Amino acid sequence: MIYQSSSITVQYIADGIAEFTFNAAGSVNKFDQQTLADCRAALEILHKDEKLKGLIYNSSKETFIVGADITEFLATFQKPEADLIPWIKQASDIFDLAEDLPVPTVVALKGFALGGGCEWSLTADYRVADTSTKIGLPEVKLGLMPGFGGTARLPRIVGADTAMEWITTGKERGAEQALKEGAVDAVVAPDKLMAAALSMVQDAIAGKLDWRKKRAAKLSPLKLNKTEATMSFSTAKGMVFATAGKHYPAPMLAVETIEKAARLDRAGAVALENAGFAKLAKTDAATAQIGLFLNDQLIKGKAKQAGKLAKKAINKAAVLGAGIMGGGIAYQSASKGVPVVMKDINDKALQLGMGEAIKLLGKLVERKRLDAAGMAKVVASITPTLSNDTVKGVDIVVEAVVENPKIKGAVLKEIESVVGPDAIITSNTSTISINTLAANLENPSRFCGMHFFNPVHQMPLVEIIRGKDTSDETIAAVVAYAAKMGKSPIVVNDCPGFYVNRVLFPYFAGFSKLVLDGADFAKVDKVMEKQFGWPMGPAYLLDVVGLDTAHHCTDVMAAGFPTRMAKVDNDPVSAMYHAQRFGQKNGVGFYAYSKDAKGKPKKDLDAASAALLAGIAALAKDFSADEIIARTMVPMINEAIRCLEEGIVASAAEADMGLIYGLGFPPFRGGPLRYADTIGLANFVALADQYAHLGEIYQVTDKTRAMAANGQVFYPV
């Protein structure tokens, strides 16, 4: 044994050939501070070992290395930028030490080789991958760029254009694509991996492979003439700006770093990367995106735990109510391997629901993500029916009929008498109290809400709503089923609007008050999209949701919170509704809609809409971008805080992810509570106080004021 620690072992496996094996105590290998220290210690020994002729890097696990230990990031990134540069240099020096071994090196890749795992592989002279390999540099998804030499080495291995595409998109590659692009040197079957790596290092030792020449290219400037460099980097910058925009600084800084490093050797290139990484580590975007990743892991962890606790296995489901929503739910269940019965009382609705599922599957076939046989298999696992008899024997029912408490109550009562005594019953409702609906059932302990967001196949969130009588076993089984469907489930307690809609409607109310005070709704949309980062501004979102739906929900919220969410006098939403302007669904709302050349909805300003609003609003007034953001966002943040304080949602992480996954809250801001932390709670309270005269939705809670005074945050590091 040459070296052994809790994370790596190094030993000879043939004459002069050593195997450097990553073998962390957990389920995967990752670079935490201890592992990096172990790597340094092992490499220093290897540099002095005169018997060493060649080295193979390998993993004892099913995957190579998943990357750096992200759980260490947020605390470390609290350091000043000047202190972060030597910190990251200390780590990247270890990768240089690996690259500088005086013998040929080969890495045997399998499973995931991401982030730092990919960067470690780039230090080797040769990379052989098995067919399971997924390799990439996803750091931009955390608001960062590679920090262990990735921006220096990858361009010198695969070329600047390919490297920039890898780094700026963060997309992983399969083994064959990585081979085609030059990132790996060979691809073999899993059972041939070590034999191939051994053969490759032996060929290098024997001089059959010129490993010194390959290594020299990684230590030298990029081979690009001035014209090539200008075209390459200009094109990359244009593409990055068009896709990432100003809110995500990491991709652009990565391109600029590669550009500046093009004429430098490895030392100069890595030094630029160290500085760029430290700069990005201090940005709000990185804090938010790292937090988002950790929050997502928390949600996945809870879902995994629910799966272990669930006593009821969900092997067959039923959806009551076809149509677009029912078809979307049926598609999602069936496509993830849970057969589903889709039941309705109307044959046309069944045809619509099946049509929706077939349309979605057809798109997967077009994109070559599914073949015709796979599509046929999924379609065959959806059973449309008009009969309750077909529903017998299912493990779970998702009621998705019209949003009317009487109709839903009748359907739920009827289906309870049809399904087995241990079948779980859920309601896909966006506003109706789960406790109210549960009153229709003999056994409310097996009932809860299961709120999907439209379009079902695109929106990650499912709100699992616990009623006062819902059992823990029911919640565990439904959370596990939602996760099995590929969704991110968040458990919330029952209240008007549950969590997401309860938080959304104060935002809409803030928008309505702005319009009534003379704001131009189109300008409000532009500010909230371009500057704050929402995918749609509030007027556009209302049109997409449907102004008839929004009008109904506003009534529900006003009834539930009569002082805070009382209907706004001359509410623009109600004015649109009464004028039969329902948004995209009938072509007119705040905007007028037509179809573009591809048949997608296209919005335009409409004189009739402007005239309608002019009749109820004050004279036109120009509001600053900061005013627009404050008047719409303060009510939303306040309501999210109230939901956390009241226990409607269990944690700040789930509160933030609920809005990111359910509404498209800008990920680079991390969610409403992370955003409040970012601007500072004291600053948030002061901002809210400026608008407190506008109503209760702008008034912070006593606990928020106390937290601000005590310097507390929602996310202590």
In short:
With 717 residues, this protein is α/β, with parallel strands linked by helices.
Characteristic terms for this protein:
717 residues; 2-enoyl-CoA Hydratase, Chain A, domain 1; Rossmann fold; 8-stranded mixed sheet; 30 helices; 20 strands; globular; FadB; EC 4.2.1.17; NAD+ binding; NAD
Strand and helix map with partners:
Elements: E1 3-4, E2 8-14, E3 17-22, H1 33-48, E4 54-59, H2 73-76, H3 81-99, E5 105-109, E6 112-114, H4 116-123, E7 126-130, E8 134-136, H5 150-158, H6 160-169, E9 173-174, H7 175-180, E10 186-188, H8 193-205, H9 211-219, H10 226-244, H11 249-261, H12 266-281, H13 284-309, E11 317-320, H14 323-335, E12 340-343, H15 347-366, H16 372-380, E13 382-385, E14 396-399, H17 405-416, E15 424-427, H18 434-438, E16 447-452, E17 461-466, H19 472-484, E18 488-493, H20 500-516, H21 521-532, H22 538-545, H23 547-560, H24 572-578, E19 592-595, E20 601-604, H25 607-614, H26 625-645, H27 652-663, H28 672-679, H29 681-690, H30 702-709
Parallel strand pairs: 3-4, 4-5, 5-7, 6-8, 7-10, 11-12, 11-14, 12-13, 14-15, 15-16, 17-18
Antiparallel strand pairs: 1-2, 2-3, 8-9, 16-17, 19-20
Helix pairs in contact: 1-3, 3-4, 3-12, 4-5, 5-6, 5-12, 6-10, 6-11, 10-11, 11-12, 13-19, 13-27, 14-15, 15-16, 20-26, 23-24, 28-29, 29-30
Organism: Rheinheimera riviphila
Family: In the central section; belongs to the 3-hydroxyacyl-CoA dehydrogenase family. In the N-terminal section; belongs to the enoyl-CoA hydratase/isomerase family.
Enzyme class: lyase
